[in-house]
Amino acid sequence: MSAIVDSRGFGFSGPVTARAWFAVFTAPRHEKRVEEHFRVREIESFLPLYRMRRQWKDGSKGMLQLPLFPNYIFARIGCGERLPVLAVPGVISIVGGGRDNMFVPDSYIHFLQIGLRQGKIEPHPCLTSGTNVRIRSGAMAGMEGILLRRKNDCRVVLTLELIMKSVKVEVNLDDIEPVGRTASDHSSQVEDVARFSNEPISAA
Fold first, then answer.
1. Which domains are present in the chain?
2. pLDDT by residue (tens digit) across 88-139?
3. Does the model's pTM come out above 0.85?
4. Are 82 and 23 in contact (CB under 8 A)?
5. Are 150 and 77 in contact (CB under 8 A)?
6. What is the DSSP letter of 145?
7. Quick one: which of 24, 72, 104, 157 has the fewest CB in 10 Å?
8. Which residues are CB-neighbours of 44 under 8 A, at least 6 positions away?
9. Neighbour tally for 127: CB within 10 Å
């Protein structure tokens, strides 16, 4: 059984002495064009894309690759490398790239890369309430969020607060625990999570 978590607080603040990942805000529907410009200019970047099946009016079907976070792409840059990014056509701004230097942790980028490769991540609206849980293992270990029920399965909704965008991802029920509990009795924690996951709440 898998579970849904809304994780908050992604986006660290502090001086950037080495290269770090930043969220780059783009013009609408310019994410792939910006990615190509970054590639040509040798600016390291990551555009999260997810696959969605679509049926057109003529009945034909196909698979689309769409930006996971519309209007955003990630760029890995260091001090003094902001101007080349801002000079790229289609780039509007670097989120948190000012005095506060709000950057995205490497672990979050790594999690996105793995989850998208495995087809376990989809976009999801931001969440504000629910049962708080913590992921115990895997690429998302330590991330906290909100547990939601979805029929017989659960998902994990992780929010990148820096840009207020969320994704939902599958995790095993055994790999999550309620926040605020000790690890002394994991079996009772799993029972609590399973009970919470069956409570009637707004569907994802």
1. 2-10+119-197 (no CATH), 14-53+65-116 (3.30.70.940)
2. 999 999 998 666 678 999 989 998 999 899 888 889 888 776 777 888 887 7
3. no
4. no
5. no
6. E
7. 72
8. 19, 38, 75, 76, 77
9. 21
